[in-house]
Design goal:
It is a single chain. By secondary structure, this protein is of the alpha+beta class. A hairpin with a 4-residue loop joins strand 6 and strand 7. Helix 1 crosses helix 2. The chain is globular and about 50 Å long.
């Protein structure tokens, strides 16, 4: 789980700002979208990050990147946001809180003829992770083999109805009463 060399200079600028504000820099993406480049900073903290905190990071980072034009070549749009519901897991310390949860992991080289693993994160230690895949097999993956990993939020199945709470709160109808 290495930092992309394209974004390493930005990490060096942004991470101290985030830490100073009591926040965590989760990930940095620099990609072409539409007609230009987008530099996306994903910021978080325990309990979630506020709009005011994202705005503070955006202002400070924008000012520094304007001065350090060597950090991001060319023109770009800066976006600062929370990691969202399918949070990227970019560091070994990100995995333990998600043990027992569903994850999606891509690896650099094939592990058992596969590069992609989806399933339940069953263990995370100093060396790597174990995923019990959708194939019901346990797959051990070293951190240095991981290219990308995300928590995958599981929404309730479509078509499953929740119990109608109002039904239990309705007064019973008695025959003959109006």
């Amino acid at each position: 789980m290495d930092i992309d060399p394209k974004t390493a200079p930005v990490w060096a600028i942004v991470e101290p700002i985030a830490l100073e504000l009591g926040l965590e820099l989760v990930d940095i993406e620099l990609r072409r979208e539409g007609r230009g480049n987008v530099l996306r900073l994903l910021i978080d903290k325990a309990g979630g990050v506020s709009l005011d905190e994202l705005t503070a990071v955006s202002r400070q980072v924008s000012d520094l990147l304007d001065v350090r034009d060597d950090a991001v070549p060319g023109q770009y749009t800066l976006e600062v946001s929370s990691p969202g519901i399918n949070r990227p897991l970019t560091r070994p310390s990100h995995f333990p809180p998600f043990v027992g949860k569903r994850v999606h992991v891509q690896t650099r080289k094939a592990i058992g003829a596969r590069h992609t693993f989806r399933g339940i994160l069953t263990a995370a230690d100093a060396d790597g992770i174990t995923i019990t895949g959708d194939d019901r097999e346990a797959h051990s993956i070293a951190f240095d083999a991981i290219v990308r990993a995300n928590y995958q939020h599981e929404f309730p199945s479509v078509g499953q109805r929740r119990p109608d709470r109002r039904a239990s709160q309705r007064p019973a109808h008695r025959a003959g009463s109006r």
